[in-house]
């Protein structure tokens, strides 16, 4: 924990239940958490489910967005808060990249890099996911992903490759 607030980017997603309601409640719970201030929340976007085998249109679609927050928590404590909110909304971790009522991923934390058993920063697959990059750009047009470059450029590259 530190006295200096640092900015974090949190990806929001859900493909089961009342997706938008769940995401909005999760954002409200983040805002209600001591030491976290929600600065901005992106519009929510529909996306195709992504599994270990790739895109799967037979699965329920996702609703995705990004929240930009400031916090005096350390990254691991923030991650624990995110996982607690997921659990409170019925998140069950049975299948990697499986269906979920709520998914809160810590994408970036003050530009830090970290690779531990608990947390990898920046999120290792953010650069591949337009459903993270597009809403991130909505809340921070000047955003940069450490080690990868400007989010606008990363998104443009993804869009060109499709």
UniProtKB/TrEMBL annotation:
Classification via Pfam families: HPPK
Any one GO BP annotation for this protein: tetrahydrofolate biosynthetic process
EC number: 2.7.6.3
Tagged with keyword Amino-acid biosynthesis: no
Protein's name according to its UniProt entry: 2-amino-4-hydroxy-6-hydroxymethyldihydropteridine diphosphokinase
NCBIfam families, alphabetized: folK (TIGR01498)
Catalyzed chemical reaction(s): 6-hydroxymethyl-7,8-dihydropterin + ATP = (7,8-dihydropterin-6-yl)methyl diphosphate + AMP + H(+)
Gene that this polypeptide is encoded by: folK
InterPro entries named among the record's database cross-references: Hppk, Hppk_sf
UniProt KW keywords: ATP-binding, Folate biosynthesis, Kinase, Nucleotide-binding, Transferase
Entry-linked SUPFAM superfamilies: 6-hydroxymethyl-7,8-dihydropterin pyrophosphokinase, HPPK (SSF55083)
Pathway(s) the chain acts in: Cofactor biosynthesis; tetrahydrofolate biosynthesis; 2-amino-4-hydroxy-6-hydroxymethyl-7,8-dihydropteridine diphosphate from 7,8-dihydroneopterin triphosphate: step 4/4
Sequence ranges assigned to domain 7,8-dihydro-6-hydroxymethylpterin-pyrophosphokinase in this UniProt record: 9-141
Entry keyword annotation includes Transmembrane: no
A GO molecular function held by the record: kinase activity
Domain of life per record: Bacteria
Gene3D superfamilies the UniProt entry points to: 7,8-Dihydro-6-hydroxymethylpterin-pyrophosphokinase HPPK (3.30.70.560)
């Amino acid at each position: 924990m530190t006295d200096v607030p640092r900015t974090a980017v949190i990806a929001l997603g859900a493909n089961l239940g009342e997706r938008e309601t769940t995401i909005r409640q999760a954002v409200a719970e983040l805002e209600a958490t001591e030491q976290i201030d929600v600065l901005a929340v992106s519009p929510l976007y529909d996306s195709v489910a992504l599994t270990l085998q790739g895109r799967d249109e037979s699965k329920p679609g996702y609703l995705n967005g990004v929240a930009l927050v400031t916090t005096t928590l350390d990254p691991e404590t923030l991650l624990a808060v995110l996982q607690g909110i997921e659990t409170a909304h019925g998140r069950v971790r049975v299948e990697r990249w499986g269906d979920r009522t709520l998914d809160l991923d810590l994408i970036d934390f003050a530009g830090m890099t970290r690779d531990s058993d608990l947390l990898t920063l920046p999120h290792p697959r953010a650069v591949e996911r337009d459903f993270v990059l597009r809403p991130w750009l909505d809340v921070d047009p000047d955003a940069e992903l450490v080690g990868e470059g400007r989010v606008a450029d990363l998104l443009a590259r993804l869009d060109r490759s499709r």
